[in-house]
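Researcher: Quick one. two chains, 796 residues in total.
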Amino acid sequence: MIDKYRQAFDEEARELLTGLESALLELDEKRDDGEVLGRAFRALHTIKGSGAMFGFDQIAGFAHNLEAVFDRLRGGQLSATSDLIALSLAAGDQIKFMLDEAAGNGAADPARTAGIVAELHRLTGMAEPAAAAAPPSPAASGSTAGPAADWRIRFRPGPDVLLNGTNPLLLIRELRQLGELGVTVDTAALPPLSQLDAERCYLAWDMVLRTAAGREAIRDVFIFVEDDCQLSIEPLAAQPAEPDATAGPAKPNAAEARGAAAAASSIRVSADKLDQLVNLVGELVAVQARLGETALRRDDPEILEISEAVERLTCALRENSMSIRMLPLRPTFERFRRLVHDLSVELHKEVELSIEGADTELDKTVIDQLNDPLVHLIRNSMDHGIETPDARRRAGKPPVGTIHLSAQHSGANVLIRVSDDGRGLDAEAVRARAVEKGLIAGSAPLSESEVLALILAPGFSTARQVTGVSGRGVGMDVVERSIEALRGSLEMASRPGAGLTVTLRLPLTLAIIDGLLVRVGEAYFVLPLANSLECVELTREDIRDAHGKHIANVRGDLVPYIRLAEYFGIQRAPPEREQIMVVETDHGHYGFVVDQVIGDHQTVIKSLGRLYRNVQLVSGATILGDGTVALILDPHRLVQNAIQTVGQASACRTISNRHFRSFKKENRIDGTQVKP
Amino acid sequence: MSKIILTVDDSASVRQMVKFTLSDAGYTVVEAIDGQDALAKLASPVNLVITDLNMPNLDGIGLIRGVRANAALKGIPILMLTTESQESRKREGKAAGATGWIVKPFTPQQILAVVKRVLG
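Model:
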């Protein structure tokens, strides 16, 4: 039983530590900010309180020391120094180690714990505060049983006890559990009915209790009210009665610093259960599609109506269960503050991290796998991108570099950008390095974007030496591959001398999308609805007027199009009228020519299996109502690929990083070499 | 009908423990993450409030005052969770109108005993 709580505490404590860490880093910038101090204090307070409760006594004791310091900080008796903040960060890490130890991973060094506490006392000049040992609880403080004795209990509650939620009847019942009880009620103070205030207590009780329990146990029953009542507990043998307790006026404490840290109201559910739910919803969507299809074929209004109702519900259920899996990026982003802080120290660079759009939500699976690529990108920026303060001054830039981490929605995708204001990529250096590595011929004419694509080739680096930060055997190619595994894509934009921006485009979800079902000949395809703009007709006249160019005139705009039938080599008699689906891609508006647009389709994405892992144009498949398989097209990739194919036809050589991958295999470039 | 207890704490693990313990004993437990949340949840019937004192947005003392100022919630028992180092806070809570308190750390048995005392 307790293990369950310990697990919950472990998770919660780690969250709190992340919160503490970002509060501390914020504090570094805004010393003595009451709100930030309050947040740090509360995090420690909860770690201490809950830790002691679930048996993490060491953690509780350690956190207690820190809590005492932060209590004084927020009370203004101490001020935050950078030493104190650094020490608190280290202490937070130590709590993490202690949690790991409690979870059975590694061991926390007790000497280090003691060292931090000693240092804490040295810095603050505070004496060792009393340890947060488990105090006796009111319910536990009963004295040991002796021989049964008679006690006389006189109990006159204050007039307001009822308003404070006390029910004297319950107290008397509790006394009865201690032994044999005789009760006499004293109604002397009761006023005439017309003057009676039903919310006041006018009664008093005179009781005789025969019990083996001692005075403390009896008194304990009244512990909550003893300040607001007259109570006497006497052994019956001895008579002198004295009023036992009187109300002590309460002194208001120092004003509580209230933080605005918004904690989301939530319950914890294991990720497995969510996956299961989403899978079931996926199956339901597929069945619903079949029902819809059948209903249409039967043409029975009654079934059609039911089918439509089921469709509405399925749609709502789908969106709901999807949104359950969505988590904000903030915790992931906030963690990088620490990374940037630590790396700045290690690299002797001054770097600020700014975060934008951290409330953007993404599927949990995507977020989980996003951490490593982002760490790598930030390391890259810190190590290779941003210059030393001196170099920056010489380049006429402010000495403090900036890394900007942002997230935003774009259709069915989320764009995550990591940009820095460092030196950017040197296209010439990249080219020289690629020639040196034998990746391209010295004379190959390459566009700038093609040169940048070289960075993504395995085993490529422009850094001259391996540093402790980058060059850990993980290159940009690995980043790209892990993003691709999430059905996302990676783009780079370099401004030489002014910085580099890496954009990750990630799908909102990996399981179900809204799609548009289209038909070409006998083949069915799904286009993501979020990218689809409109559908226009393509007549034979339009084709004739374009003089053989694949361009359509859509209300005055020229939209290049791709004929899917040609592109995929589908043999069929061309219909009289074709449709162009205009979609939005990274390269602007493009049209896909299809035979027929069937309509929207809730698409459960099924992966194509290992054999088709390297197929780029198709992001998966789905099963239609009648059992037919439809391929889900990736419009960005499709257009990119088409552009490259056209480019290939005009230029003598085009680089795609795909080629490098096969090149790597053939030429056995050592994958463990210096990486970007 | 089982009695409804509102547990107010910004610590999910404490809420969870309170909830499991009291649910096992046959009470219905509603959770709130801070004082503000609790005040909102008190719009529906609740028989007992168990609140932490240190919380963001609206702390325990503020919640107790808020409840006692609300005529619709007259006489509802409120238990506060305190640590031993918070003697002055305990007095403050008592003055604000708390019915009783539970000292942290506590065991499931202890919390049940105290709940029985104020709720029957």
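Chain B touches chain A through 56 residues (CB under 8 Å).
Researcher: Thanks, that's what I needed.
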